[in-house]
Write a structure and sequence with these properties.
alpha+beta, nine-stranded mixed sheet
Length: 635
């Protein structure tokens, strides 16, 4: 048997230990390859160049994270195989040969994971492309193509990654003495102790971090973000390394609890497990928090923007002309021609701009638009949202200021006397609305008084109410071109035009791209977090098998064994996830305070989905872990 065959057989003999590492590496390769397929897709590059830039950026994040993930995972595997390495050295293997063997094993696993990751990505490529069409709301399909550029990039990048990681493993093994390798994980453990001061510090840091994050509002959230994040990260580290051990030791001193049934077996080892795995739990909690917060934020922003655009814009088509001239007449004719065949209601608002000097004294624009009571009430009624209407008499007026849910509350003087062109009007109220989306403030007056105003500059706002506004998206895109609107905000020469259906499509497509990119990155982070827990459990499997085999000889039943292992695994599995969920919930609440809008729906959706996935993963791991422990006891 050659040395290479020996290394290959070692991988096969340790397939249980390497399985999670191989599958996680395969998943990282596959996700990277999927992004590469999109980034190099000819149809996507021609239509959405910004999407391809974002996908390449996501590939970079995944690649850097994969490097850290593989390096840490490999360190855990090497630690679990110390005794095996010690026996090999005793039988005559030199350090150089040991390093070469580990190098070959890691390169072999990386090569196989890369090939399988690319292969599985190709198999599901068409399905993934179809999913992307839906998420990105593309009008044209993304046909399957042979992604040679993506294959070469993925294979080259990850083969290089695994080779570099393999060199790092050589340095990890250096400095280990033979006696340390032989003992492996069998070195007697001291009773874990925790500092009372550091335990209190952990609780205080988390309390301060949470308190600040939940109380700051608006722009203060941005300034508090970095210091709060640092405080919470430090607090989380001490939570797992000190506070958790301190609490377990305190529980062990409560004899009524410690000596009850199988609690002796549970608690006697739990402090050791928490102390040994503290860094892993800390890493899992932080990585999971990043995944929760990133995806929750992206989903929340999408909900927030799309909901706000619907709250702010009740009309399918809006047109605003700065001058009542032939261009306005021509444009309205084009719009009505495009809407031919669709049931719609045209609602014009004729605006008479006059100068009211007394408004300047109060800090407002003296050039103010005057609109009639009937035209405003007609547009408010057509909106169908219970918009406030006005009832005016004679020279009474209502001050209408532009306000939407995205803007902070505004205080405007309600009652006052205004004078213009020798006339006096009694402003009896003031209220905000986003019905007339010229973003200006107006004075609403009685129709009869409106007709007496003769000295003015003319503007007109048209609202076209359509029941099925989403069906007008294609019409809106055509009108933007025909009206000569080149600005993305709908501004033309002396006019503005907007279509709710087309704007909705563009916003959803833009956020769909970001969500698509962020979702996969978050999933990679979450899978990595679950994999780290798996690695730590199986790194200690041999010592756990020996421990429970000895305990079973003094009377531990199968039922009691299952109960102890289930409770222990649940604590080790869900404590970091629960911490991450709490961190994520606080972070999303802070974002809600920043934008003054609820993210409850998106938060529950994201955190609930990941928690459900973690529960399913736990059930699978628990079943497999208990089966292996019991199998060793029987044998």
């Amino acid at each position: 048997m050659t040395f290479r065959q020996f290394a290959f057989n070692n991988v096969l003999r340790n397939k249980r230990v390497y399985a999670a590492y191989f599958l996680s590496s395969l998943f990282s390769v596959m996700v990277f390859f999927v992004y590469a397929i999109f980034a190099f897709h000819p149809a996507l590059k021609e239509v959405h160049s910004s999407v391809t830039v974002g996908l390449h950026f996501a590939e970079g994040i995944i690649y850097v994270f994969s490097f850290i993930f593989v390096l840490v995972s490999m360190s855990a595997f090497l630690h679990s195989r110390k005794k095996e390495f010690g026996l090999m050295v005793m039988l005559g293997m030199t350090n150089k040969q040991l390093h070469r063997m580990v190098f070959l094993e890691n390169v072999l696993i990386g090569f196989i994971a890369t090939i399988f990751g690319v292969g599985i990505g190709l198999v599901f490529a068409k399905l993934i492309l179809m999913t992307a069409e839906t998420v990105l709301e593309l009008k044209e399909s993304l046909p399957f193509y042979m992604p040679w550029e993506a294959i070469l990039l993925t294979c080259g990048a990850f083969l290089l990654l695994f080779v570099v990681i393999s060199f790092f493993t050589v340095f990890i093994l250096k400095g280990n003495k033979l006696i340390d390798l032989i003992k492996g994980s069998a070195v007697p453990k001291k009773e874990p102790k925790a500092s009372v001061l550091l335990s209190l510090l952990a609780a205080m840091l988390l309390a301060v971090g949470y308190g600040v994050a939940l109380t700051v509002k608006g722009d203060q959230v941005v300034f508090a973000m970095i210091p709060v994040t640092i405080i919470v990260i430090i607090g989380t580290y001490f939570l797992f390394t000190q506070l958790s051990v301190f609490m377990i030791n305190r529980l062990k001193k409560r004899k009524g609890l410690f000596w009850k049934k199988t609690n002796l077996v549970l608690f006697s080892d739990l402090a050791h497990r928490m102390k040994d795995n503290a860094r892993t739990f800390f890493f899992v909690a932080i990585v999971s928090t990043v995944a929760f917060t990133a995806i929750g934020t992206l989903v929340g922003f999408r909900f927030m923007i799309t909901n706000n655009i619907l709250d702010e814009r009740p009309f399918a088509v809006e047109y605003y002309s700065e001058h009542g001239d032939e261009q306005e007449t021509e444009h309205i004719a084009i719009i009505e021609d495009k809407l031919d065949g669709i049931t719609y209601q045209k609602l014009p608002v004729h605006i008479k701009n006059v100068s009211i000097p007394s408004l300047a004294d109060d800090g407002y624009n003296p050039l103010t638009g005057i609109i009639s009571e009937s035209e405003f009430n007609a547009i408010a009624e057509a909106a169908g949202r219970g918009e406030e209407q006005v009832a005016l008499d004679g020279q009474e007026a209502a001050y209408l200021y532009y306000h939407s849910a995205m803007l902070p509350p505004k205080e405007v003087e309600g009652k006052r006397m205004l004078e213009f062109a020798g006339n006096e009007v009694n402003q009896i109220t003031a209220f905000g609305s986003a019905l007339i989306r010229t973003f200006e403030n107006y004075l609403i007056v009685d129709d009869a008084f409106y007709d007496t105003i003769t000295d003015f500059e003319q503007e007109t706002f048209y609202a076209f109410q359509v029941e099925d506004w989403k069906a007008t998206a294609d019409i809106g895109e055509q009108l933007l071109e025909e009206l000569g609107v080149s600005d993305t905000n709908g501004y033309g020469e002396h006019f503005t035009f907007s279509n709710l259906g087309y704007d909705w499509y563009i916003i959803n497509q833009s956020f769909g791209t970001v969500l698509f990119i962020g979702l996969f990155i978050g999933v990679v982070f979450f899978v990595a977090a679950g994999s780290f827990l798996y690695f730590r459990l199986y790194a200690d499997l041999e010592s756990e098998q020996q421990k429970f085999a000895m305990i079973s000889k003094i009377g531990l039943t199968d039922k009691e064994l299952s109960k102890v292992l289930t409770t222990q695994l649940a604590l080790l599995f869900f404590i970091p996830i629960i911490v991450a969920v709490i961190h994520g919930a606080v972070a999303l609440t802070a974002l809600k305070n920043m934008f003054a809008t609820s993210m409850l729906e998106s938060s529950v959706l994201v955190l609930g989905s990941f928690t459900l996935i973690q529960i399913i993963y736990y059930i699978f791991i628990r079943h497999n872990y208990i089966r292996r422990i019991k199998k060793h006891i029987v044998n």
